[in-house]
Design goal:
The protein contains nine helices and ten strands. It has 270 residues and is α+β, with helices and mostly antiparallel strands. The chain has one domain: Aminopeptidase (3-Layer(aba) Sandwich), CATH 3.40.630.30. Strands 1, 2, 3, 4, 5, 6, 7, 8, 9 and 10 form a ten-stranded mixed β-sheet that branches. Helix 2 packs across helix 9. The longest helix has 16 residues. It starts with a helix and ends with a helix.
């Protein structure tokens, strides 16, 4: 199919599929190959019976803590978080917005108990969340988050760095566990520690949920961030982090530290 053929396709169906079916598209079209562990639904997005997109629903690493911090007294039953979302590059503009619209409809029909669809835009890799803004998600501010960049350019989340932390402990000849890589070890390994912004978004799925926003500890608005709001700091040397004037260079095709996660899906997809 050529570009003109894809332009004629109409996104018209959401269907729950297996992770085996979902992963090849994620691997090819998502900027990060690492899959979230707490995924409950793999949704295939179809245009004229052709699988053109993937969206996963589940939770982040602290499901109950996340929602309870935003809405005290709430638990995981009231929300899902978008884990992965990607669309074939060949699809025309606004296809991701159409995908989100169909997914919201699918949630309302199949998971009516869910009050909110929640997500983060990964500002640390240059994404303010324009697709969520176009889909009328509300913005709830940002947090600073940390990632490591390996000598090979790999983006390494601190949660994925247990092997490196053990290596760091041995490097320092310590008996006790190391929780963050130390500056001398990072220099030895050619690793950098980068801080960047993660932008928080939510979509209420009912009028009742929209009213519930007033009880949130976070102010939800349509004052969305733009590229000028992106910011990065280098914390590799310890002490006060150094503000950077441009986004660090990641090689998002590299998956050495994260190989176990990726291979688990690749094996299933074979």
């Amino acid at each position: 199919m050529n570009a003109d053929d894809y332009a004629k396709l109409k996104i018209n169906k959401v269907k729950e599929i297996s992770k085996v079916e979902a992963y090849p598209l994620v691997e090819k079209y998502h900027y990060s190959k690492v899959m979230p562990r707490l995924t409950k639904h793999y949704l295939g997005i179809y245009a004229d019976d052709i699988l053109v997109g993937i969206l996963t629903l589940g939770w982040g690493t602290q499901p109950k803590g996340t929602i309870n911090k935003l809405f005290p007294g709430s638990d995981t039953s009231c929300y899902y978080e978008i884990g992965k979302m990607c669309m074939m590059d060949e699809m025309p503009r606004n296809s991701e917005t159409q995908m989100l619209s169909l997914v919201v409809k699918w949630i309302k029909e199949n998971l009516p108990q869910k009050e909110f669809l929640y997500t983060w835009a990964d500002g640390i890799v240059g994404k303010p969340g324009y697709v969520y803004q176009a889909a009328n998600f509300l913005y709830g501010g940002f947090i600073w988050t940390d990632v490591y960049i390996g000598a090979d350019g790999e983006k390494i989340h601190p949660r994925s760095s247990s092997g490196l932390l053990e290596e760091n402990r041995i490097f320092l000849k310590r008996e006790n566990r190391v929780f963050w890589m130390t500056p001398d070890f990072m220099k030895h390994k050619g690793i950098r520690r980068i801080k960047g912004k993660m932008f928080r978004y939510i979509l209420p799925l009912s009028k009742k949920a929209r009213r519930k926003l007033k009880t949130s500890t976070v102010k939800w608005t349509l004052e969305h961030p733009k590229h000028d709001d992106l910011q990065w700091k280098d914390a590799s040397k310890g002490g006060k982090a150094k503000i950077l004037n441009k986004m660090p260079e990641f090689d998002l095709e590299v998956v050495n530290v994260n190989k176990k996660n990726v291979q688990s899906y690749k094996k299933g997809a074979d």
